[in-house]
């Protein structure tokens, strides 16, 4: 009996050491596959070796620090092992997988978005695939029954997680960066305190012209050293931290010694590029905010900026509930440069360590000059700054040049592009669309409205209002409606929806089509929003906040309770400004808010500096997708 008890104890112990199982997270580093394993309490090198089917020496070889012992919560990279299986037959491959042939410059990020397939599925199905290093002609198996499973947002989140997984086990001196559209070798070398040449060396000779959005590249990480590195690089975290900084500082801000001046187009006298180093406040300090708004002009109140102010108050209240101390001073600028200059001289204003406003560019100059002298960030919440350039300036409105970047993938993925015209054309929108499609072949169609009674009297024959011929194909279609009035837009959208319904009801394959919408349509009051979903409309907007979001509903409730009215887009933007920048003053301001996404409600902000320009500008336009299942997804 005693012997059986001993055997039972040993069996239970044996089961316990392997109970955790293998991690499902797999990454590829320099061509070798690894599991990313998070150490749990009680695990040992012996138990991990049994779980993963490798020796303890192999684990220590990949993780030298593990020789000194394991700590719960730390991550290890463990060489990937798998059972040798029979190679599937060609018939089984054809039945189970599609094959994607990699084109020149194509990234796995773009491929996974195109097929809407989980990243880990692609890695599992392609044993020799390195997600970071693809070559033209490489063949990638795409599992058919998992195509279309992931939304664009889910795919993007998986790639962000993959980058974080790589960073969690990166060697000293190396970190991994997911390249965004518009980023260049110049901007990345500036951001990470290195040179373009050293960035190329880190990435096996990658050249500036070969940098593609969606690629994951190596950048300098913790412990990186280089002979040519700047003596005063701005610190950048290799991995984003989850908690606010608890570190104090002597004084609120510091200014680095002036760097060598640069000849930068558009720079104004007295401005610097890369000379200001913002320091975060300690959690025990009180943030003083100067909010500068044109609440009235020539004695007439401006309701828009009152709503912005009210939204800002709700945002500050949420920051205070999170344990931060904030004091707000409100200034009515009257949209007058002389008034603003006098404000800058006031003692209360000079106690501020964050300035929001003065909204318009005309009265901005004295505020920026003062902020540069003190190293204080200035937030311009609504306008696109065309002239003023300064390291202290943060712009929440995205620049117009980036408006259609998020439509590029849509253009590239559609095989047939059709511009639909009426007698009246929105020429500005047409110019934007012609620039966007570039040299792509574009079909044109002139829509003519015909009343139902006319169709009935005429009898047989197609009506010029019938858009079925435009949809009756197996291509992926993109339609762009050039009409510049509400009635024509409404009729065309209804005609597309009707044609789609007609084709499906006759048993044909459902058409694949998207309508790239004009932001002006959101101002039309008589178009049924139901047709937006039926026509799979995509909008590109500076801002999005709909009451189908839990965060927006929560804000609406707080706002109505405080002010007895529904919030407007100005209210939402005021809330965003308060939440992003008041919180950042205790943490992310030291990194200029770069390399982070901020989504207080539904709109995401991501700040960065354009090559050769000083302002920190929101890079992110919002892509709003109206889906056939009556859901709205935001990119």
Secondary structure topology:
Blueprint: H1 2-18, E1 26-29, E2 32-38, H2 45-52, H3 56-62, E3 75-79, H4 90-96, E4 97-101, H5 108-115, H6 119-125, E5 139-143, H7 152-168, E6 174-178, H8 185-191, H9 196-202, E7 216-220, E8 254-255, E9 276-277, E10 286-293, E11 296-297, E12 300-301, H10 303-321, E13 325-332, H11 337-344, E14 354-356, H12 365-374, E15 378-380, E16 393-395, H13 408-413, E17 416-421, H14 427-437, E18 443-446, H15 452-458, H16 468-471, E19 476-481, H17 486-505, E20 512-516, H18 530-534, E21 537-541, H19 550-563, H20 569-584, E22 607-608, E23 616-618, E24 622-626, E25 632-634
Parallel strand pairs: 10-13, 10-14, 14-15, 15-16, 16-23, 17-18, 17-19, 19-20, 20-21
Antiparallel strand pairs: 1-2, 2-3, 4-5, 6-7, 8-9, 11-12, 21-24, 22-23, 24-25
Helix pairs in contact: 8-9, 10-20
